[in-house]
Every structure is written in structure tokens, then in C-alpha cells.
Amino acid sequence: MLGISRRWLIGSASNCDLRIEEPGIAPQHCLLIDTPRGLVVEDLHSPQGTFVNGQRILGRVRVTRGDKVRLGANLSLPWPPPSEEPSKRILATLTARAVTVDVPKQRLLEQVSFTVLPCELVGIMGTSGAGKTTLLNALNGYKKPTEGAVLLNGRDLYADGGKLASAIGYVPQDDIIHRELTVGEALLYSARLRLPRLPGSQLRQRIRGILKQLGIENIEHMVIGSPEQRGISGGQRKRVNLALELLTDPLVLVLDEPTSGLSSEEAMTVMQMLRDLA
Questions:
Q1: Whether residues 188 and 273 fall in one domain
Q2: What's the pLDDT at 180?
Q3: Per the CB 3.0–4.6 Å rule, which of 36, 155, 206, 266 could disulfide with 262?
Q4: In degrees rounded to 5, what are phi and psi of residue 221?
Q5: pLDDT of 141-194, one tens digit each?
Q6: Where are the beta strands (DSSP E) in the chain?
């Protein structure tokens, strides 16, 4: 019996499965091939080359977990993903291209450009008032840039009435959960609103899976709580907010200050969890 392979074409052309419009990326740069014997990367005679663990490859090379794949001079592709088989993942790349945001009499962002590749965990740092939240709002579909573009897999995030933005999950800095509900109730109510076509049994199964994935299945029946009513911890609260977004299985997750207000130990736990999710 012949095994079935899945292929992803990577390059800057519009027909690529993973479109990366960066200097040094050829229109059809390389292939990722998921074969029954493992993952293979194949360079497609790109001028700037494809590298595995620092060595330029010719033709096909098998890669395993932990190998470093680089396209061109300095664009690293973190592949294969650390926790899932490639065939179960959808590749997504998010690109900011000269993003500029203006409000009356003030420019908040000017010509911001970068690319986030599949499985990457990227942090945006800056002083208070530097425009970090403004940038995140442009990336998650909340605020269309005055100039420039945000691309998801090469497609304009704000085209077609912003329908593509539903593929991006956003966890704001402030809590978005009702403090008088239990964790399970908060997730179930959100799931019913956002996934109305799924039967209740499937919703509950999805919720249990997400709670287990985030390591908080033991607090499903605990009240979320508030400063006046003791409930779950700050780190657990952050993970519940994240769970709300994971309900819809987004391609990209955007989080605004995910460790704000947490102890150093809780912050480390949250960041490790995000690394595992990526």
C-alpha cells in the first residue's frame, strides 16, 4: 500500500500554501512534504537557498523534531512543531506590511513591518504608550490600518468585510470572563454563543479537552471570583481567558500583556504554556 504525502509550497508567490513576502524568499522557495516516513524539506532551486541546521541543502532532506530550517539569509522556520504532527496543523503566517495607524491630529504607528511564521512565539516590547496595543488591534482585525496591510497567509485581513479576522484569537489585557460563574459555565456560555451549531455534548467535550490542554481541568467547577470574592488564582484566570479563545480553534493567537499582574512563577508558567501551544 502506498502512503499518502501532504505537501506545502512555501514562497512569495500568491499560489503558495505558506506565503512569505520577505527579501530573499523566492516565488517558489521550497516544499515541506509530510510522508509516511517523516517530514522532508526540498529546496526548489531558490537563489538564496534553504538551510537545515546551518547547512545549505540540495534536493530533499529529512528533518526531525528540533531541526532548524532557515530560508535565505536569516528567516528561520520553526518546524516541525514540538507537540503535534504536521498533518494535523494548518500552517499560518501573519505579516504586517508598513502598518501605519492615525487618529485625528496624531500618528500612533508608522511603517511597522514584520512576519510571524508558523509555530513562532513572538513578543512585542515597548515603553508605555509606544503603541503596542494599537499594533495588536491592527493585527487581530479590530482596527484597520490607515496605511499598509495585515496579511494572513498572504490574504488581506480586512478584505471581504474582515471575515478572515475570525481566524485570529485575541486575549485582551483585561479579563473578559464573568466573575460569578464557574470556569465551566463561563466556557460553556461562550461556546454556545460562538459555536451555536455544535450540539451540547460536543461543546462540553471540546471544553474538557481545552481545560486539560491548559492544565486547569481541576478548576472546572470553581467560581472565577473577584477581589471581593476569592476564586481562582491570577495565573489560572489568564488561562481561562485563553481557553475562551481556543474554543474556536484560531489559526493565530494574539495576547495583550499575558503576564501582567502575575507573580514571576505564574508568569513563567503562562509563558511555557504559550510556548507549548505554539
A1: yes
A2: 87
A3: 266
A4: -100, 10
A5: 989 999 999 988 888 888 877 777 888 889 888 777 888 899 999 999 999 988
A6: 6-11, 18-19, 30-35, 38-43, 50-52, 55-56, 60-63, 69-71, 75-77, 94-103, 106-116, 147-152, 155-156, 168-171, 252-255
Q: Could you give the 3-state DSSP secondary structure of residue 197?
A: coil
The residues near 263 (Cβ < 8 Å, ≥ 6 apart) are: 234, 235
Domain span at 217: 183-277
How high is the mean pLDDT of the chain? 83
Among 21-25, 73-77, 261-265, the range scoring the smallest mean pLDDT is 73-77
Compute the distance between CA of residue 278 and CA of residue 275 in angstroms, rounded to an integer. 5
Is 170 within 8 Å of 140 (Cβ atoms)? yes
User: Considering its fold, how many domains does the chain have in total?
Assistant: 3
Domain-ending residue, one of 167, 191, 223: 167
Report the interhelical angle of 234-246 vs 200-213 (nearest 10°): 130
Residue 88, CB-side half-sphere exposure with 13 Å CA sphere: 6
Q: What is the pTM of this model?
A: 0.66
Q: Between residues 140 and 5, which one has the greater pLDDT?
A: 140
- 201 and 270 inside one domain: yes
End-of-domain residue from the set 76, 111, 128: 76
Pairing of β 60-63 and β 38-43: antiparallel
